[in-house]
Structures are given as C-alpha cells and as structure tokens.
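Sample pair:
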Amino acid sequence: MSGAGLPPLALTMGEPAGIGGEIALMAWAARRERALPPFLLLDDPARLADLARRIGLDVPVRAVASPEEAAGLFDSALPVLPVALAVPAEPGRPDPANGRAVIESIDRAVELVRQGRAAAVVTNPIQKSSLYAAGFKHPGHTEYLAHLAGMAEEPVMLLEGGGLRVVLATIHVPLVEVPKVLTKDAIVHVARVTARALRTDFGVASPRLAVAGLNPHAGEAGTIGREEIDVIVPAVSALRAEGIDAQGPYPSDTLFHAGARARYDAVVCMYHDQGLIPLKTLDFDTGVNVTLGLPFVRTSPDHGTATGIAGTGTASPSSLIQAMLTARDIAARRRGKGA
C-alpha cells in the first residue's frame, strides 16, 4: 500500500541512551531502498547529528518547525522537530533527567497525529525505570497512549511477524498471577477489538481467531487445570454468539507450526511469553508491535532499548523500518475507509 497523500509519520525519541536514535538514522539512510514513507523525528537535532558522526553515517539532520516542512525536506535530510534534552545523552547510560523530554516527545507526536498533521505515531523503545523518576505513572507505552486518548477501555497489544499475529489477554503480569486476573470478559474484549482491527487495519475481510489454552494440553478436560472450562470456553462461546469466528481453546504447543498458522489470522494468547516466544522465534528481527483500539495509529519495533550496544552502530533498524511500513499501511487503509 503506497500511502500516497498521507502526512509524514511521527517517530518518537525513545530512550536517548538507547538505540532509538541510531536506528532512526539508519532507517532514513535506507529510505529509498526500503521505499519508506516520509517521517519526522521528535528528538534533539544536535544529539542525532553527533550520533551520526559517532557511528559513521552520512545523514544530514535538519531541524524543522512543522510536519508540513518535514514532508518537503525528507528526501534530502532527516527532519527533526526539536525536543530539548535536560542533559547530554550518553549511549548506554540512561539519565532520569531526560525522562521529561522522552515523555514530551510522545505527547507531541500524539498531538500531531490527532490534529491530522502526522499519519501515525511510531514509538522508539523507552526505558521505564528512567521515566518513573520523571513522574511517569504508567506500566508502559500502551497504557500511556490510552491515557492520552482518554480511553475508558484497555487497548490491545498485537505483535506481528513471520506470518504470525498474536494478541495478549494479559500482558505484563507475573506468571503466578495470570490465573487470578484472566477473565472471560478480558478474553472477549481482546478478541473483539482484534477482529475489528483485522478488518479495518489489516484488510482481513473475515477474521479467524484461534484461542490458546492456558494449561498444558489446554487443561486436558480439567485434569490439568480448570481455566479452560471455567473461563476460556465461555469466552469463545460468547464470541461465537456475537458472530466472531473464534475457535479453541487449543493447546499452545501445537498452535504455532506452519500448518496451524494457515488456519487462523491471529491467536489470542493468555499470557505474555505464550505469544512472544513463538513470534520472536519465527521473526526476531522484524517483528512489530501494533496498538489496537486507539483512535490513532501507533506501531513500534518489537525490541527494547538495547543500551548494551547503543552508540556502536551495530543495532539493526529492521524492526523499526517494518513498524513504519505497517503504520503507513494501516493509516492508508483507515483513510481509504474514511476512518
């Protein structure tokens, strides 16, 4: 999908001591080869120029005053809407003093998209421990974006890569707590939002959802746990009553091989690693995180800040590049449907 006529994507700073800046520079350097849509980065221009010199990339960095200015400049320079850091960023050494700049970058990117001046928000990874010191009170990006959107219900995290899409009924929950917080309503909500997004954002006319079990062998008729009987089966029945093509619960050890993947469009997983281990095994380099249910488009690379290699120029921009392409495609579909 070309995305012709869309405004530029808004790419956030992320943790300035992480790899976000250098993979953004690398993505711009690969813009023609990968047919990337125009994007602008909300970051510190001096930091990026220094970083480009440090890792040996010939990327001209230009400060801009608006997304409109960025669109015309993109082919010849990386446009940056300035966000000032409190202290100079040192690769590999997060400083809580820069937490407010990271939050400002997210806030301004969301504002631009909601104004229609940017097509989508693409977020670079954040270091939550640094943000908490700056007053950040949310578990992560997804929850903070829902707060900015004023949403009453929870958005849904979808991970895509290697021909697999997974969504999570519980996210950052200790494994021992999952059976306590897993509910029929949570599964129904996640599946309902996913089915809708598959149609509107991914162009799947008749979405097919596979629902994973929680326990080994999907509980084996209650002999290895009752969550399937008491929680998951009622959720699947409720979804089917709404006309959603949901099947399961299936044992997760037979749900992710190639033959199984051909039978569904997304898997509703019960906990974090149940979905992310197979996805990252299939496609570690170009997996993408998409937030479903927001009133604006948001994607992110499916990796962390990688402070251990920050500033070395060895990070891969592949996941960020795919996140931009996915954001472009979703934004174009929404625009085509008048969303």
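The chain has twelve helices and twelve strands.
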